[in-house]
Design brief:
single chain, 283 residues, Rossmann fold, 7-stranded mixed sheet
């Protein structure tokens, strides 16, 4: 029997996991996509070399273990300037209408380890909008938030993504070729396998731990732009609409939401937004 077969999660087992976590904490996975959650849970069982009863027993006994399992279950995938065409669209179409605002407020919801946050700040700096923009970022996982705060990443892991940097910044918004040196924004230390963002970037964002499923907006502002890419794909239809309501209520009129390539606003909230290029614009 293969590992994947051995760790295949039944509906009943998934329900036991969801109920145990809900009873022992504030986390609620009820409305997550069953398929995604089963896949993540199967991987956790494989990695911990436990069966589900033992895992649930340990969750009941240790709050620290529970927190670790939550971190393992939630997906954290990000990179610098992920999907370059989106960043070019942000530069050329989505951000320019905000230039005349006194201040610009951007929220990265589900920011993971922060490469997207740094990509945004670099883009804003190149556009001359860095100083007038306030950056906010949230994630359910406190460990990835700490990585985002420090702005330190593995060089070998991220080296391929520096190509994205070049693709996005090779030309300015007027189509003129330019050469933006990495050293303007980050330090590369190949010996220690490290990329470190400059302090003027790492010190700017305000980070908060937040569960999009249960929490309200933790910041006392409304946003001009909300970035939430490759998060709602793990939620079912009902929970997606709950999150869309949260975003809609906390967007300025004319503000935009950016979702992942394979994500879309369906259902009742689709009528509250106009899809334009990569953005969903609040009507």
């Amino acid at each position: 029997m293969s590992g994947s077969e051995q760790n295949e999660i039944s509906d009943q087992e998934l329900q036991s996991f969801i109920e145990t976590v809900k009873n022992m904490s504030a986390y609620d996975f009820t409305d997550y996509s069953d398929k995604s959650l089963k896949r993540r849970l199967a991987k956790v069982l494989l990695d911990t070399r436990m069966d589900l009863p033992l895992l649930l027993e340990k969750i009941k006994q240790s709050e620290n273990f529970l927190e670790q399992i939550i971190k393992d279950i939630t997906v954290n995938t990000t990179e610098l300037f992920r999907d370059p065409p989106l960043w070019l669209s942000l530069r050329d179409n989505i951000i320019p209408p905000l230039k005349n605002k006194q201040d610009i407020k951007i929220w990265h919801a589900g920011c993971s380890t922060g490469q997207e946050v740094y990509s945004m700040m670099i883009l804003l700096y190149e556009m001359g909008l860095f100083e007038k923009t306030r950056i906010y970022a949230t994630d359910i996982n406190s460990d990835v938030l700490e990585s985002a705060r420090t702005g330190i990443y593995k060089y070998r892991f991220n080296i391929g993504y520096l190509d994205n940097f070049d693709k996005v910044l090779k030309y300015d918004s007027g189509g003129n070729q330019q050469e933006v040196e990495y050293s303007k924004y980050l330090t590369i230390d190949k010996t220690h396998d490290q990329i470190k963002m400059h302090p003027f970037l790492s010190e700017k964002p305000v980070y908060k731990k937040m569960d999009l499923v249960t929490d309200v907006n933790p910041f006392p502002v409304k946003f001009d732009l909300i970035m939430c890419r490759n998060v709602i794909i793990y939620f079912n239809y009902e929970l997606q609409n709950k999150v869309f309501k949260l975003f809609h209520d906390n967007l300025q009129p004319g503000g935009s939401i950016i979702l992942g390539v394979h994500e879309t606003i369906l259902g009742p909230y689709s009528t509250f937004f106009e899809k334009k290029d990569h953005a969903y614009i609040k009507k």
